[in-house]
Design goal:
Shape: globular
Number of helices: 10
CATH topology of the largest domain: Rossmann fold
Strand order of the largest sheet: 12-10-9-8-6-7-17
Strand content: 15-25%
CATH superfamily of the largest domain: Response regulator
Number of domains: 2
Number of strands: 17
CATH architecture of the largest domain: 3-Layer(aba) Sandwich
Structural class: alpha/beta
Length: 399
């Protein structure tokens, strides 16, 4: 007989059915003020009394493969850094988990089989209802979600939200695109019109418009995070229209970068460094830098700090200055003039001297989205509710 789980059941499901009653009871709970072992010395400075723990199992879940040159790879690299930089952290991972009840199954298995006491289900669609439901069921486990907006008094205390102001890096990439484009036509291949995506489209366009006020960005929404055929079709369509710089916000920019290179147009990347995919046309890119934040959280886990105790903030945000994101190195096609302007804008953003969303800003339907005399700094909650495309973007949020 072949040695495999019964049809329709994963290995995790089978093991969980056998071991659930014992596995979770054996987990070292991540909480301040743990009870000392019977033979522990009553030393106030001891590991037990200080709230520190000897090992913490941390689970990471990705919606796509870990080597996608994009969103999932960036998180996986951050997870690897957490394990490498923090003694006592043990990482368990699962890739290519869809935004369905499958992620609930993965989270439950990591808790009950692997003993995870902190989870990072990283995809946007994991949050509601799956993370929220499991967080209620397992109040002693910490759930950290990338992008979801935690609401105090509404969401469980063991849920946290972390994300970066990567639109800062997109703004700088837009400056490079603005200097490089000869046609004055840029392209943006996007997955879904959620606030995080809209911020990137708008910031990229604003950066380009700071160079050339008449420049436009054509946006095409594919409808899903990973639609390679549609992404290639969109990029080819843009090249056919005379667009000479294209970028994207999809899970894996690989197809967009490679298609742009084949068509002889320029590109800027997203999530991770895609320069090897387009050695001639890659200009720069907006990259996540999860190493710092994941390492910091891992250190806090080992110190026994939790969301529930208020030791870790429920909302973690940061930009270029906080090393939540960074810029890819400039490619060979970037002019010295473009480099100087981009570097200057980057330094202004890091210093807090440049506001991307300034007063009088209008949507591409003519509505004023930032009133005259005002400017929305990166931590303004209104930006996390963004539901518009600015003037200069050709397209609409319906697709």
């Amino acid at each position: 007989m072949p040695n495999h789980p019964p049809l329709g059941f994963s290995r995790r499901q089978v093991i969980r059915g056998l071991l659930a009653t014992t596995a979770f009871g054996a987990v070292t709970k991540l909480s301040a003020g743990c009870t000392p072992a019977p033979d522990a010395e009553p030393d106030a400075a001891s590991e037990v009394d200080s709230g520190a723990v000897s090992e913490v199992v941390v689970g990471f879940i990705y919606v796509g493969p870990k080597d996608d040159f994009g969103y999932n790879q960036a998180h996986a690299e951050g997870a690897a850094a957490m394990a490498a930089n923090v003694s006592g952290i043990k990482i368990v991972e699962e890739a290519s988990v869809p935004e369905t009840s499958a992620v609930a199954e993965s989270m439950r298995s990591m808790i009950e089989i692997d003993g995870a006491t902190a989870l990072f289900p990283t995809s946007f669609g994991y949050f509601d209802p799956y993370i929220l439901e499991l967080a209620t069921e397992f109040p002693e486990v910490q759930f950290f979600h990338a992008g979801g907006l935690y609401q105090e008094g509404t969401h469980p205390d063991n849920v946290g939200s972390y994300f970066g102001y990567i639109d800062e890096a997109e703004y700088v990439a837009g400056i490079v695109a603005g200097y490089t484009s000869k046609s004055g036509k840029l392209g943006f291949v996007a997955a879904k019109p959620i606030p995080q995506v809209l911020r990137n489209i708008n910031a990229f366009t604003l950066g380009a418009k700071s160079v050339n006020p008449d420049i436009t960005t054509q946006v095409i929404f594919t409808g899903e995070w990973a639609e390679p055929v549609k992404e290639a079709e969109a990029t080819n369509s843009m090249a056919d229209q005379g667009i000479d710089v294209v970028t994207c916000h999809v899970d894996s920019p690989k197809v967009v970068m490679e298609t742009a290179e084949k068509r002889g147009i320029f590109c800027t990347g997203y999530h991770a460094n895609q320069a090897p995919l387009a050695p001639k046309g890659y200009l720069t890119g907006a990259e996540w830098d999860w190493v710092s934040i994941y390492t910091s959280l891992g250190e806090q886990f080992m110190e026994g700090k939790t969301l529930m105790a208020g030791d870790i903030p429920h909302i973690l945000r940061g930009g270029l200055a906080d090393k939540f994101c960074k810029l890819s190195d400039y490619g060979p096609a970037v002019s010295d003039e473009a480099k100087a302007a981009a570097d200057a804008a980057k330094e202004q953003l890091i210093a807090g001297d440049l506001i991307i969303y300034t007063g009088g800003l209008k949507s591409n339907t003519g509505d004023v989205v930032v009133p005259e005399g005002e400017g929305y700094k990166q931590d303004n909650i209104e930006l996390e509710k963004m539901d518009y495309l600015i003037e200069g973007v050709l397209g609409n949020i319906e697709g």
